[in-house]
From TrEMBL:
<dbReference type="InterPro" id="IPR036291">
    <property type="entry name" value="NAD(P)-bd_dom_sf"/>
</dbReference>
<keyword id="KW-0560">Oxidoreductase</keyword>
<dbReference type="GO" id="GO:0016491">
    <property type="term" value="F:oxidoreductase activity"/>
</dbReference>
<keyword id="KW-0520">NAD</keyword>
<dbReference type="InterPro" id="IPR006140">
    <property type="entry name" value="D-isomer_DH_NAD-bd"/>
</dbReference>
<dbReference type="GO" id="GO:0051287">
    <property type="term" value="F:NAD binding"/>
</dbReference>
<protein>
    <submittedName>
        <fullName>Hydroxyacid dehydrogenase</fullName>
    </submittedName>
</protein>
<dbReference type="Pfam" id="PF02826">
    <property type="entry name" value="2-Hacid_dh_C"/>
</dbReference>
<feature type="domain" description="D-isomer specific 2-hydroxyacid dehydrogenase NAD-binding">
    <location>
        <begin position="104"/>
        <end position="275"/>
    </location>
</feature>
Amino acid sequence: MTTLAFLSANLDFGYLLPAFRAEFPDADLRTMADLGPLDAIDAAVCWCPPAGLMARMPRLSLIQSVGAGIDHLTADPALPDVPVCRIVDTDMASGMAAYVTWAVIHGQRHMGRYLASAAAGRWEEAPIQPPREHRVGIAGLGTLGLVCARALMALGYSVRGWSRSPRELPKGLEGFHGQAQQVEFLSGCDTLVCLLPLTEETTGILNRDLFAQLPRGAHLINVGRGAHLVEADLIPALDAGHLGAATLDAFVQEPLPAGHAFWRDPRILVTPHIATRTQPAVIARQTRLNLERIRAGRAAEVAVDLQRGY
Ligand code: NDP
């Protein structure tokens, strides 16, 4: 009998259970409400699991994140030494591309202004710039960043990307990598999209020094993690004109507290961490495939490198 435990300190996993019951018809599915004996658990399905809990599961052979990121796992200093897998999903990638494309267009084509004029019944035109003249920089050229880059290039935007290491890129995508090329990359980003994983190196990367290296008036889109952004640096950068606007989908504290200054600033567009999602059936299927591979002595397909942090 396979036993799966659904572990989260802040998320109700009820929405996942029907899909897991379909994918694992003979398994024992345990939730935080009743984990039962910890020494029976084979795999942990996680989002922000309580620290130290998995270290008490001697039979554990898989830690499965329900999202693309694993930063919520690396925060656990007692994480056991078993494969950690994340979700890589074409629907999640196309959902992210749709959100990022919308956010780029919303900024570059002044849709905020049109919404305000329409609400006031005013016919007011803003300048129209061809996409080719607008440079979009994507920080993080992984499974999501590359799909966003392709979608924006298909619309004619001038797209550049930044990764940690050099990589082969689709034709037309200008690549930069590493610290050495960061300044050059940033200097050509009229819009900067953050699609980095949250690691020691990238925590707080969206800060006032970085904003000062962007072209004046740049639009920041953060669809990575809240802690990529030094929140206290954002409004001063908008006031100083280093940034012209920000579209934020992830926050240090979620939900963003009601009194937070970001809600009240018309230059900041807040969305509630909805850039993209993975369907429960995909999470359940990837969990089953990972567990089967591990049991067959093979490497799980989307295992992450904990040393690297993503
Ligand atoms: P990947 O792991 O596939 O890609 C990460 C990319 O970031 C790689 O290109 C990597 O470089 C680059 N990178 C990592 N560290 C650095 C660094 N220090 N400097 C420069 N580049 C770096 O991630 P995904 O594309 O799958 O996901 C990206 C992030 O998107 C997730 O970690 C998550 O935070 C966020 N996300 C947000 C969602 C939302 O709804 N808002 C939903 C899903 C994900 P290299 O190619 O050299 O390895």
